[in-house]
Amino acid sequence: MKSSTRFPEITVAGTPKEMGQQLGEQARDAVRGFCEYSRDYAEQTCQLAAAPIEQVVGRSLEHAEQYAPHMVEELRGVASTADVSLNDLMLLQVRNQLRPSDDAGCTAVSLPSGGVRQGAILAQNWDADPTLDAFTVVLTRRPQGKPAALTCTQAGLISYLGFNAAGIGACVNTLPAPSREWGVPHYFTLRGLHEATSLESAFAAVDRAERAIPANIMLCTPQGPVDFEVTLEKVYQLFPDDQPWLTHSNHCVHESLQAVNEQFPELIQSYARKERIDQLLTHRDADREAVMEMLRDHEGYPRSICRHANDDPQHGIWTTVFSMVMEPAENQMFVSRGNPCEQPYERYQLVAD
Asked: I need a surface site. Which of 70, 158, 213, 230 has the fewest CB within 10 A?
């Protein structure tokens, strides 16, 4: 059992620099620990990368400055109070560019509003190295002139999984596809999503970035569920078709990207997990409790939707580090700290301004 079933909660507000300084002060140990972890990770994998670590960091910083200078200014604020360097923080943002398929493998679902009694739901299991639990926080940002956002993230990342006060929510799945050494790190495009107020502005936040790696982004929007399969060249949109929901794991679904799946090895039983979550949705009324039960599913254990350590030679260490169920219209999300079959879902609230 964890020492606590809740992640640490942090709130920051103000200018980019002020928010960064507040985050660095409140999460200093987690930021420093995550930087050390990422440096060790990078040094272990740098021989697999096509470019030296510092070159990837430096070139990606240039891209990030062009994409969103206010986000880099926030990182400078974190660096000033957490006693780390800006390059240390940028390494957090680019570590998956050194070995893209090692970011995380996840199962995600987006459900539309079910009427008066049920709002839209966005949910996923986040499967990764369980060491990352120690650096994970639930963070509320209240930036000037932009929507407030509630995210579950590792301390020091410019953004990650969550939703904003405009009803835009985002989950992320690793998408094995062509990548390059540097570009705008995908955590910056996620932050752009959390600053969006519509599907159109969310799409633009991702589309305008000169990206380094592919990713899948599952969204909840006021217009309904949508999924972005993001490659280096294009953002492909998926909308509900024969069923009202969308699901995704770790392979391409859009018909234009089927050839990509043939070029890359399957990531942690992706096809079986997607088939299983679709099967569960077909046979259940998908309210919040039902979705939580689906994310506890052990069909194919231990390589299941609720993932446990196993003998997989490459990703056997990966487990469900946290499971989250978001209800953006109600300004709340429920997060299990660890496998949802073992830990309770705790409620976190985005308090209105």
From this structure: 70
